[in-house]
Design a protein that fits this description.
alpha/beta; single chain; 12 strands; binds NADPH dihydro-nicotinamide-adenine-dinucleotide phosphate; 10 helices; globular
């Protein structure tokens, strides 16, 4: 529908990942381009890790203005960029590149995406005890955001003990977040019951493993707020179990939307806004593409 608009001034943006077929970013960003009336297109690039450096240089030479970065390149790119913003240095991951006159600048918009996705619920976090499931890349962005939300305590569980240890080192040394405490499988359900807020940053429950959840279904109650970064399926087993017991639930679709919007603001230098009706519309479009 918009192809008639493409001309020699059209700005090119994209996402690099491997594999990339299931990314919703092209749908999201091309909707943004249309909504904000930008002369721009956004495409997906399937970039094998061995071609990462060439891909960035090639994109830059072709005049691509901005790229999002997804699995498995978020950390691998750290050594390939010219400049990192403060958040990238702290979180140790990249999800947005600005390719500017041969210079490559790196940003990470996941912490913003997480916080912004909470809307008014962000005020529930002050002085709260939070249980965080997972210690991967997304968990780093979430811990960084939780520290800024002024939580009281972060309990962390991860399946692999080795990764959990590395994650704690990262929290203490890179982020200087000291309110983080590791827990094991035996403590998990009791702590889940006691914490007001539970956040899943693992892929457990994500399509096609939709029967998985790290928590027993009877730990939930109506004072819980349960947030799952996974958005496919729309409600994971964790969210369904929590909802069944009266908890407030949220999936990761708004985080995806807001981290993408922040990338676009970085690239365009425009203060783009997304009012509630538009947010509802793009959320619906993305969910229909799952
Ligand atoms: P990583 O590969 O860096 O980390 C994966 C994490 O999930 C690890 O903690 C891993 O534990 C854990 N894990 C994976 N499978 C299982 C399982 N079956 N049981 C228990 N733990 C499991 O991935 P990311 O941190 O980048 O992403 C994690 C999830 O968050 C993905 O589903 C991703 O789609 C989602 N995400 C959503 C975003 C959004 O905008 N909504 C943004 C970023 C991520 P272990 O160390 O034991 O392997």
């Amino acid at each position: 529908m918009r192809f008639g608009m493409i001309n020699t001034s059209t700005c090119v943006y994209g996402v690099i990942g491997y594999p990339i077929e299931h990314s919703l970013s092209p749908v999201l960003h091309n909707w943004f381009m249309s909504n904000y009336k930008l002369n721009a297109v956004y495409v997906a690039f399937n970039v094998h890790p061995s071609e990462l450096k060439n891909a960035i240089k090639g994109g830059s030479a072709l005049g691509v203005i901005g790229l999002n970065v997804t699995i498995p390149h978020k950390e691998a790119l750290l050594g390939l960029v010219d400049e990192k913003d403060r958040d990238v240095k702290l979180v140790g991951a990249i999800n947005t590149l600005e390719l500017n006159a041969g210079k490559i600048q790196a940003h990470v918009t996941d912490p913003y995406g997480f916080t912004e996705s909470l809307g008014q619920r962000k005020y529930w976090f002050k002085n709260a005890e939070v249980l965080l499931l997972g210690a991967g890349g997304a968990a780093k962005s979430v811990v960084y955001a939780l520290e800024k939300l002024d939580v009281k305590k972060i309990w962390i569980y991860n399946r692999s003990a080795q990764r959990l240890r590395a994650f704690l080192d990262f929290c203490h040394n890179a982020l200087t977040v000291s309110k983080v405490q590791a827990i094991d499988r035996k403590q998990l359900n009791d702590i889940a019951f006691d914490c007001k807020i539970i956040i899943n940053t693992t892929s457990a429950g994500m399509y096609p493993h939709t029967g998985e959840s790290l928590l027993r279904s009877d730990v939930f109650h109506d004072a819980h707020f349960v947030y799952d970064l996974v958005y496919n399926p729309e409600k994971t087993k964790l969210l369904l179990d929590a909802e069944h017991k009266g908890a407030t639930i949220q999936n990761g679709i708004d985080m995806l939307i807001f981290q993408g919007l922040e990338s676009l603001r970085i690239w365009t230098k425009q203060p783009l806004r997304l009012e509630a009706p538009k947010l509802k519309k793009i959320r619906h479009i993305l969910q229909s593409r799952l």
